[in-house]
């Protein structure tokens, strides 16, 4: 089932009956573009990276990315870097898991980003998608298609932020440029 | 194009005459409830169901079917109706599924009269529910909208209807069942009735199974600590501990952040992954454990009245149908586990009690009770080892969360106080005081919440520790553990050994066993010169304590290895440690009496050096059977007391050779020394000290965990005063060895 969230759309992660979601996963999948020509082995690999930045009161306090796979408090975990992408057949090549109940109390926003580490813009990426999944049920909450996008190399995907006693997910889909999430911080700050 | 809705999403309706099409892969009941402004259904007249299919503005089917078409005319709805909930339920008929989890996800689509879809919703994620509110149509400022609901009820229609405020929910639910049964009898020829309900329910239970958390993360077990988890082919960062605190137990990792907001210091194309230590499935849940017993008594019973609404997430508990069977199975399981433990470790009585713990019913809402051995692994030893490491990591991370929240609260307070001070308006009057108080309140509140989260985690870990500690085998157990009284010489070496206890200031009195893998990959150094040992007036007392800690450790290593596979040699140049060494010498556990004097030092080091050299040559040449017959190939632990007393330069060089080359060929070092004593060597011995794992005879915070790098306070495992357990154990070890010879 494909659920295409629109930009700025917010979903409360609190269930109608008062229970709330306990874990979400941001999954990222893509496929390297096929190469035509003689030197097939010289593939044009594409390395997309998923990152999550934890903010407290608009200050970044921790980050989970390929060089720091688990946030210090253990609530946010990256499943590991994938340098080349997969078959692009729907499986997540990289994923970040967030255990919402264990997020430190001062962290009030978590921003998910995707960067093209190898510098290709999203125009050149094939079958790339990014999705947010309710980890407890496997239900997809939102999905973006990244390929055929514009001349940018990064996207600020979504934010999960505290609202009341629960969490709310807001789809952002803000295009940006940069190699790793650090380059995105200036673009992130205005949307906190 | 039709909108595909997700749970909770709404969608405007552009027309008021619509059809709701519901499809499932088995016959289901469809109905609707009409609720007023406050969301309550007044009485049974507000429910359209197979027994009363037509209400003003809506018509439902008379019987259960796999495809439904509900005709809805919103213009014809009475003014008082503000919400129409479309519900589906599984008919309670023999041979039919009892839970939506057994079917493919049903789909509800809203279409115009011409069949064009306006919006659709697939009800994914259903499990134990037997009745579900699929969609609702509701008035919003004179227009109607549709919302995907997907709210399921494991207790069936009764609970669903009761939740809508219907007073006679149970009767109505029964009426609906009857009407459906009637319809079924008419429409579907009766099949061979499979009335063996219990068999079916247990089958469905095994299909559902317990929710196994994080099986995928088995890859990152604590064993990976040697080759820190780089699963993607990138080289792991060179792991050298930071100078101040000794990384533990093996390698530290480079600091992940440079302190500026937690961002990594390095940037650039050469992407080294931070070597993260062991990871493991989250400890919050546990596989295959009896869950809370809050479910309904028996789903087969006819519509239990006033059943509580199931607010827990369906995936987070076993299917209620299974629960009638589950307690028996769970009990059997727990007993089997208890037996396995008892057999595997020939444990004392105390352990049987420990493994009884999981049978106790869980509190209704709290986390499941912890169970010893609740981790991955091939043996109970391995599972307990992984569990202890998991607890270690969880405590490290929970504390990190607490500390970072407190730090943040403090820095925010400072900032706000500064602001209040610099604001000219607040200099006059009480505005400044108010601002200051508000800032302090905010800080206190955040700290309180952080404390509450930490307390929650600590309570869970303490409960886990209470069941894990008694279940530990001798190699992992404290000396005061009853398992030592039932000690038998093992036939296999353990996978790890406990070097002591670890705790953080926030975590007292909870202590985590410090388990390291065997064979030891680094030498050990028990520091008899702890800097802040001013409370020990007599330096000799500390030295004595250090040697006793070394002796307790050596005895433990002797005891947990099979007879004759581990030997201990002692160098005590000045003979100063005779009384502390008494347990070893008295029981005859040493191969030879402690070597004294410069000659003794030279002799022992010479023999061990030769042994390391010969075994290395043999191993490299692939000719381990060509070793001289007299050579003892068992693992050796060399205790050196009062280093460098009695050592000449040549002996020091040999010791360094042993420290570097020994562990690979089974010669391990246990140094009892005060670094100050070796000050004369200057920086020459620094590499030696660094290569050893530093332990202390008194509590000292010098060990860093591999995840966050907290400074953990280490305490050695000492034999309780007055206890004879050490002598008893060593006597058995010696007896077993003499028998073998």
From TrEMBL, chain A:
It comes from the Bacteria. Coiled coil: none annotated. It holds the Pfam family TerD. Residues 1-179 form the TerD domain. PANTHER family: CAMP-BINDING PROTEIN 1-RELATED. This is Export associated protein. It comes from Streptomyces fuscichromogenes. The lineage of its organism: Bacteria, Bacillati, Actinomycetota, Actinomycetes, Kitasatosporales.
Automatic annotation (TrEMBL), chain B:
Residues 65-162 form the TerD domain. It holds the Pfam family TerD. Residues 319-359 have a biased composition (Low complexity). Residues 360-370 have a biased composition (Pro residues). Residues 187-375 are annotated as: Disordered. It comes from the Bacteria. Coiled coil: none annotated. Belongs to the CAPAB/TerDEXZ family. This is Export associated protein. It comes from Streptomyces fuscichromogenes.
């Amino acid at each position: 089932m494909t659920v295409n969230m629109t930009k700025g759309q917010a979903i409360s992660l609190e269930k109608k009956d008062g229970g709330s979601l306990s874990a979400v996963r941001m999954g990222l999948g893509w496929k390297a573009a096929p190469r035509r020509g003689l030197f097939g082995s010289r593939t044009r690999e594409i390395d997309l990276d998923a990152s999550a930045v934890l903010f407290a009161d608009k200050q970044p306090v921790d980050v989970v990315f390929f060089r720091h796979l688990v946030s210090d408090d253990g609530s946010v975990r990256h499943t590991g870097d994938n340098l080349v992408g997969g078959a692009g057949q729907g499986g997540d090549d990289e994923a970040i898991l967030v255990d919402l109940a264990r997020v430190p109390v001062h962290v009030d926003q978590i921003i998910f980003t995707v960067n093209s580490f190898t510098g290709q813009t999203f125009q050149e990426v094939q079958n790339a998608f990014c999705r947010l999944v309710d980890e407890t049920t496997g239900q997809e909450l939102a999905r973006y298609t990244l390929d055929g996008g514009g001349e940018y190399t990064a996207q600020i995907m979504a934010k999960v932020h505290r609202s009341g006693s629960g969490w709310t997910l807001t789809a952002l889909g803000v295009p940006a440029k940069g190699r790793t999430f650090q380059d995105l911080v200036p673009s992130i700050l205005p949307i906190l | 194009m039709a909108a595909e809705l997700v749970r909770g999403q709404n969608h405007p309706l552009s027309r008021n005459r619509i059809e709701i099409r519901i499809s499932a892969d088995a016959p289901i009941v469809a109905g609707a409830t009409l609720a007023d402004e406050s969301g309550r259904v007044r009485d049974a007249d507000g429910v359209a169901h197979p027994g009363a299919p037509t209400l003003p503005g809506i018509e439902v089917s008379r019987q259960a079917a796999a495809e439904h078409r509900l005709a809805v005319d919103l213009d014809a709805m009475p003014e008082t109706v503000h919400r129409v909930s479309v519900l589906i339920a599984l008919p309670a008929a023999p041979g039919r599924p009892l839970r939506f989890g057994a079917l493919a996800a049903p789909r509800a689509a809203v279409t115009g009269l011409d069949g064009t879809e306006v919006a659709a919703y697939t009800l994914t994620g259903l499990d134990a529910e037997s009745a579900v509110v699929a969609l609702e149509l509701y008035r919003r400022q004179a227009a109607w909208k549709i919302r995907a609901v997907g709210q399921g009820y494991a207790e069936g229609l009764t609970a669903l209807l009761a939740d809508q405020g219907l007073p006679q929910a149970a009767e109505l639910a029964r009426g609906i069942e009857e009407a459906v049964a009637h319809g079924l009898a008419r429409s579907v020829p009766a099949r061979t009735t499979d009335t063996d309900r219990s068999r079916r329910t247990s089958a469905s239970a095994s299909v559902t199974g317990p929710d196994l958390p994080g099986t995928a993360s088995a890859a990152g077990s604590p064993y990976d600590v040697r080759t820190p988890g780089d699963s993607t082919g990138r080289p792991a960062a060179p792991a050298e501990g930071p100078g101040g605190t000794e990384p533990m137990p093996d390698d530290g990792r480079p600091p992940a952040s440079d302190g500026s907001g937690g961002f990594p210091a390095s940037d650039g194309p050469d992407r080294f992954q931070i070597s993260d230590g062991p990871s493991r499935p989250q400890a919050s849940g546990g596989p295959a454990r009896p869950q809370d017993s809050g479910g309904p008594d028996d789903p087969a019973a006819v519509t239990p009245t006033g059943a509580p609404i199931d607010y827990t997430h369906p995936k987070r508990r076993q299917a209620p149908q299974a629960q009638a069977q589950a307690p028996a199975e769970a009990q059997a399981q727990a007993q089997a586990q208890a037996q396995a433990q008892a057999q595997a470790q020939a444990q004392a009585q105390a352990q049987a009690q420990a493994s009884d713990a999981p049978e106790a019913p869980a509190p209704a809402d709290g986390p499941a009770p912890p169970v010893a051995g609740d981790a991955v692994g091939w043996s109970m030893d391995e599972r307990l080892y992984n569990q202890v490491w998991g607890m270690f990591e969880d405590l490290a991370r929970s504390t990190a969360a607490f500390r970072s929240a407190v730090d943040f609260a403090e820095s925010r307070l400072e900032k706000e106080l500064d602001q209040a001070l610099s604001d000219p308006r607040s200099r006059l009057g009480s505005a400044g005081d108010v601002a200051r108080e508000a800032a302090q309140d905010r800080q206190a509140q955040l700290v309180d919440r952080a404390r509450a989260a930490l307390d929650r985690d600590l309570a869970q870990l303490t409960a886990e520790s209470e069941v894990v500690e008694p279940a530990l085998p001798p190699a992992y157990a404290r000396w005061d553990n009853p398992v030592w009284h039932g000690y038998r010489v093992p036939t296999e070496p353990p996978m790890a050994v406990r070097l002591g206890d670890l705790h953080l200031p926030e975590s007292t009195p909870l202590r985590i066993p410090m388990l390291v893998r065997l064979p030891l990959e680094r030498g050990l150094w028990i520091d008899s010169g702890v800097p802040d040992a001013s409370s020990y007036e007599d330096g000799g007392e500390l030295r004595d304590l250090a040697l006793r800690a070394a002796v307790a450790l050596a005895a433990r290593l002797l005891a947990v290895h099979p007879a004759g596979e581990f030997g201990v040699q002692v160098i005590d140049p000045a003979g100063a440690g005779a009384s502390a060494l008494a347990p070893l010498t008295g029981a005859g556990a040493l191969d030879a009496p402690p070597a004294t004097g410069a000659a003794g030092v030279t002799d022992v080091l010479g023999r061990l050096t030769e042994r390391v050299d010969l075994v290395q040559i043999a191993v490299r040449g692939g000719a381990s059977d060509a070793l001289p017959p007299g050579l003892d190939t068992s693992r050796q632990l060399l205790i050196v007391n009062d280093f460098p007393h009695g050592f000449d330069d040549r002996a020091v060089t040999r010791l360094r050779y042993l420290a570097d080359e020994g562990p690979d060929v089974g010669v391990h070092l246990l140094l009892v020394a005060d670094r100050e004593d070796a000050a004369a060597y200057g920086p020459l011995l620094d590499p030696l000290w660094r290569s050893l794992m530093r332990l202390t005879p008194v509590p000292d915070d010098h060990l860093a965990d591999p995840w966050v790098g907290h400074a953990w306070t280490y305490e050695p495992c000492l034999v309780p005063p007055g206890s004879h357990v050490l002598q008893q154990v060593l006597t058995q070890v010696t007896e077993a060895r003499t028998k073998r010879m």
